[in-house]
Amino acid sequence: MEKGNKWTVADLAQAAKAIQEGELVAFPTETVYGLGADATNDTAVKQVYAAKGRPSDNPLIVHIASQDDLAPFVAEISVSAKQLMDHFWPGPLTLIFDIQEGSLPSSTTGGLTTCAFRMPDNKVTLGLIETSGKVLVGPSANTSGKPSPTTAEHVLHDLEDNIAGVIDDGQTTVGLESTVLDMTVNPPMILRPGAITPDDLMTVIPEVVMDDHLVSESSQPKAPGMKYRHYAPEVPVYMIDYAVQNWQSAIEWATSEGKKIGLLCSESIAKPYLEEVDDVYYLSKESDVKSSMHQLFSGLRYFDNQNESIDIVFVETFADEGIGMAYMNRVRKSASQRYYR
Ligand code: TXA
Ligand code: MG
Question: Counting atoms of ligand 1 from 1, which one is nearest the CA of 222?
Fold first, then answer.
């Protein structure tokens, strides 16, 4: 099959056929685009790692279209897990379960005895899973280390030569990857923060805890993928502390160093500095974290690909609470933890 097709919803049958033939198809979800392949086909899954340049010890999420799709893989589903699925699926919540030995290839599980599952909230992709009759691995459809893709164009930029095609369903709505919750421990543990917050989860189950790594960033993360360098554009990114808002002094310093400056922030923050900086990518109108989550990866890609003349980017931060935790987890990585002080 010819590579790098851009498919629409109307081409679902063709995309499903490619999946059945062991090819790679990028699919839309509410979070980010995923790089899909038949999760039970070892050869196809190995191609997913190769296409992304992803380390092979980093396990994949299996995307399903109904809770019944879990049956061949997961022996036991706890009451809490059932309640979470009923409440949040389809949606941006990934659940990790113990799986039946040998029910999935070790390429999919990264050799672990557990596996992550999620039912994405996207009709086309649920249709792709149903039409192909296959459950799909779906790491974010970017080159490893780059910001996750929130449009079909981002996917083709990174992976055009390596995939049969991408199903274009416009820009994703959430913009950051799903919350990953480990159900194999008690109480369940958040390994990656996302749009579904600890408080959201605790409206359904009594207790969740956070991986220590998310609180201190010092200990080793429990999700293998959280330890890798991520989201960082070529250009250095510095965070501006939301509690200090020292944009003025950051811009004066960078100007005195002769740097071309990019801002990644709200319209209201950027407004006084438009004459002094070289480019701005707006994350929101008036600094709301939800819109900023939605635009963040596009903005990081903008300074990586579209405007390569910029020497330094200053990025907006938010309080590390609620959905701000998910935003800040990605922003800290993109800035290699650096604040302008
Ligand atoms: O929103 C999303 O979750 C997107 C869309 C496409 O669904 N997918 C996604 O996949 O972000 P990926 O592969 O980029 O991230 C999966 C994360 C990684 O950090 C991985 O280490 C962790 O989940 N993970 C997967 N299986 C795991 C397991 N069995 N135990 C611990 N962590 C696991
Ligand atoms: Mg990823």
Answer: 31
Rounded to two decimals, what is the model's pTM?
A: 0.96
Question: How high is the ipTM of this complex?
Answer: 0.99
Q: Which phi and psi angles does 203 have, rounded to 5°?
A: -80, -15
Per-residue pLDDT tens over the stretch 90-101? 999 999 999 999
Confirm if 128 and 15 have CB atoms less than 8 A apart.
yes
C-beta of 177 in contact with ligand 1 (< 6 A): yes
88, 174 contact by CB (below 8 A): no
63 is in an annotated binding site: yes
For residue 274, with 0-12 CB atoms within 10 Å meaning exposed, 13-18 middle and 19 or more buried, which class applies?
exposed
Q: Which residue has the tokens 């990586």?
A: 304
| Segments of the chain with pLDDT less than 50 | none
Tokens 């974290």 locate to 289
Distance 247 CA to ligand 2 centre (A): 30
Closest ligand 1 atom to 27 CA: 6
Report which bound ligand comes closest to the CA of 228: 1
Question: Does domain 237-334 sit in CATH 3.40.50.11030?
Answer: yes
In this structure, which topology does domain 5-227 adopt according to CATH? DHBP synthase (3.90.870)
pLDDT in tens, 276-316: 999 999 999 999 999 999 999 999 999 988 777 899 999 99
Q: Cβ(226) to ligand 1 under 6 A?
A: yes
* Per-domain residue ranges of the chain: 5-227, 237-334
- Crossing angle for the helix pair 289-301 and 152-159, to the nearest 10 degrees: 30
* Protein residue whose Cα sits closest to atom 20 of ligand 1: 225
- Is 114 annotated to bind ligand? yes
